[in-house]
Predict the structure.
Amino acid sequence: MDRDAILLTPGPLTTTLRTKLAMLRDWGSWDADFNALTAELRRQLLAIVHGEGTHVVVPLQGSGTFSVEAAVATVVPRDGHVLVLDNGAYCKRFGKLATLMGRRTTIHARAEDEPVSAEELDAMLRADPSITHVGFIHCETGTGVLNPLKAIADVCARHGKGLIVDAMSSFGALPIDAREVRFDALVAASGKCLEGVPGMGFVILRKEVLARCEGHSHSLAMDLYDQHAYMEKTGQWRFTPPTHVVAALAEAVGQFVEEGGQPARLARYRDNCETLVSGLRELGLKPFLKPEIQAPIIVTFHAPNDPKYEFKTFYAAAKRRGFILYPGKLTQVETFRVGCIGAIGRNEMQQAVNAVGETMREMGLST
Amino acid sequence: MDRDAILLTPGPLTTTLRTKLAMLRDWGSWDADFNALTAELRRQLLAIVHGEGTHVVVPLQGSGTFSVEAAVATVVPRDGHVLVLDNGAYCKRFGKLATLMGRRTTIHARAEDEPVSAEELDAMLRADPSITHVGFIHCETGTGVLNPLKAIADVCARHGKGLIVDAMSSFGALPIDAREVRFDALVAASGKCLEGVPGMGFVILRKEVLARCEGHSHSLAMDLYDQHAYMEKTGQWRFTPPTHVVAALAEAVGQFVEEGGQPARLARYRDNCETLVSGLRELGLKPFLKPEIQAPIIVTFHAPNDPKYEFKTFYAAAKRRGFILYPGKLTQVETFRVGCIGAIGRNEMQQAVNAVGETMREMGLST
């Protein structure tokens, strides 16, 4: 039957019908009604991290990566030096975009099954005073590992270094309190744990940092200083906003608040994650990460150790049953990933577990 | 009553319900179904300019300006020299983004009420052989003036110079034939004359040009060479696509084809434009441009020459009647703009004319 599959992916993800219905309107991007929508959305996003008074939210068109690139381009001066703490694919992407735009970049690689280390960061900042900024991924979607935001932020603060946080996969689900965690910029996007549709990102910037960022960006479209200044002056986006995506995110954030905000969302995702992990364990599938460093966002599983296993077949069979899985992103180990996020709960996760079980039996894999 | 206003703006614009309904699905961005949607959309966009075999379509997340910036970053080598033919606000923006990204840029300014000149371009290319690329806006939305694409392209071809065309406001409505018009890159977006929703752009690139563009871009997100290479290899977008926006554009392009393609769309917009201009003329409002250089996309009108006129009041009164007008963008002359594009026809334009008449009488302006 023609029914949307459940997306067990790190985004785009399954959204509520209410969120999608918010896209059935056409908005004038210059009009006061749309400006009010943008202003209220920015206010609500800021409230999620308790940044009122100290921080601002600057939305940006494009995918989350556009916002990460914009954050680096805006915050890091052209003669800055970025140290990227790397334990996965998105860390590497962060390093690549910083390098490409011409910022001096040092990439400190670590094993993908371990969090990055505040102690190592401390030592590196001592050893190389030329480092001006640290690039950090909160939840590395490559494996799903949770990195220690507070500890890293504290080390940066102690050394007086800037911190740019990619909180793409964590924002809205994991607690982030701007009153306790000092960052220059924190980046997230519409189509992740806020459960909007993809098409825009946003960057939460510390006001006193942003005030010094004029002229840093090599890119007109990605200049968050300019985007912010124009928005403050006119209430409008500098360039055509993705109006329907903005409206969907505003609606999704409304539902986020109704549900009980970040604690409620985390509780639901944790429950999803536990249902998933315990269910797949019973089928003989083991998570790649140790439980204590596993964020309840996306889980990497070892592929069944059986010559009959092939991801493509596994994926197609699960899809026929109504569930979209996600490929692994590790080069050394054969894995697959399953997202716990989106407008889904225990029912959907249990159905997914059942579908994976049926798929394995169909493929003749031992469960 | 709660009814969407008609957007008489250069985009976002009024879309059909069918187009918006296409957003009521969640797509997995990695999934074969979505890859097929992207592939078919790219094929259809290419067919609009008859670029089969010679050109490729590379879609990009973000607003149209992101795609213009990406086209310049990708096509112009770092030691290139861009000449921008400037007769309006969007030309100036083109010049600004090229300058910011570090490309040597020369801006040749002309009056805003005249098209750019192929003869002048010819003279400039003779005078300065260091120029490698020409930046050109097909329909300058600042005033609505139509610039001579074929003549400019012929001069560039004769001199062996690259040409980057911003066809944001013209694509799909005005004829563009890649078999007859030689360009390196031609840029447009989802939320303009194709009548999709805003949130993505696309660049049509000549294959033999694109093949030489590796490593030009200073930006990871905006590297169209990389975006294209990845898409050819995997069928997927490099970074999260705005899935709902893509689905809406695919649906809108389907309706475009049903309507009769570019000739039918141009005929409808011409009719809209004539209904608008003749109707407002009867109310004593004069277009800013001479008819022969007016594209039937957006029309700039002189504001009523009356101290009782104020745009804000005028705008609000028209909005109360269900029509969203657009402010002028000229600094010397008091004007306002009215778009002729979107999923609207003669009825809506006549209703708009009537609403402007009522508005003027309400404001005590002579009609």
Remarks:
- The CA atoms of residues 360 and 366 of chain A lie 7 Å apart.
- Chain A has a mean pLDDT of 97.
- Chain A touches chain B through 59 residues (CB under 8 Å).
